[in-house]
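Service request form, structural biology core

Requester: graduate student, group of Dr. S.
Request type: structure prediction, single chain
Budget code: on file
Notes: please return the result as structure tokens.

Sequence provided:
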Amino acid sequence: MATVDWTADANEVLTLSLVRAEEDKQVPGSEETSEEFHPTFTYPIYGEEEKIYGYQDLVIDLRFASGSLAQYLSVRYAQKLDASTTVDNVEGILKEFIPPDYDTDEAAFLTRVEEDAVSFQPIGSVVHTYTRPVPNTSGTGSATREVVEHEVYHATWNDPGFREYHRRMQLFILLYIEAGSYINEDDDAWHFFVSYEKRKRQNGTKTYHFIGYSSVYKFYCFPEKHRLRLSQFVIVPPYQHRGHGSELYKTIYNYVLLNPLISELTVEDPAEAFEDLRDRNDLRMLLANENFMKEGFGNETVSHGGAKVRKRKTRVRANPVGATSGMVKGTGKMGPPIDKAWSETFRTQLKVAGRQWQRLMEMLILRHFNPTDIQAARAYRLQVKERLYRFNFEILAQLEKEERLEKLEETFQSLRADYLRILEMIK
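Core staff response, request fulfilled:
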């Protein structure tokens, strides 16, 4: 007789969905955002093993009204073990992480969805708007696809109703950010940027649908400014891979850039996917900065919409035998090696954190210098290794000289390969 397995994978049995009002389901592209999805992590809720014990065919159905994020929770199963001391209390555990006003009656929840769809308005102030094409679900490939408006709102605890709204959306931090945790509501230094899809019904009624959000923390920065640290950043799965993360990040960066009382934007322990997103957007920002590109690389290369534009060819003397055809040394401040004083001036103006700025400079130099220029390649390698040595000094200082040099070279080659991977994304 086969042994019955009473253990379920919490990531698989927890099903999430963003529920729209019936009329809002009729708009083009709403099908994909209404699909069910699953969490990436559940260990903050159900333990390190992410297992739930004591049930057969367990389903945890957690739904959110697509705008207000009002919640509905249903726990269903085919069979439950009688031994109550060893069976996990599925709803009892989860309810500790969500607001107590969730619905357990499906009809009541759907009524609430219909009401909230009309009455819900994003909290805070609009700081950015953008459009995206409607997802093409027909497969026709039409060139005249409809576009959808999106808005990003800035909010704080001082905005009426936001504290309650945040309690509904913060669960996504636990479910999609590794080592994510809830923040302290009593700390007034938190700021929030929340993204919404904005739709318009035939009668003109505007409805808003949650996409994701980021929480940032304001630190004092001597002598009279603040530094903003991006702490949490999440886009819910139905909206991922559509550029919404980039729009949210650029909104936060531009908020920092335009605020004279904020000195720079930093990021707290970024995940790899977010680090890629940050790198891509920061690089595009620099490539689109004509003054920076001209001063950095001279008149040989200027920026135009993030692309490299070369000057018209002119008649020049041929290179002597053995000379390279790369950039002429000294034509721009980027070198290599880079002009550190010039670089720091631009870094301060553009409010980019120090380590991130150094990485960006290294990527841009790699993108532009001629790899056959031996002198430039050596200068670049030394510049990068100097930073790596300083950053990893405590570890490297414990190694013998030969082993230290080998480790630095290994790290340099790995970093260079990763830079090339990122640069491929912005072509």
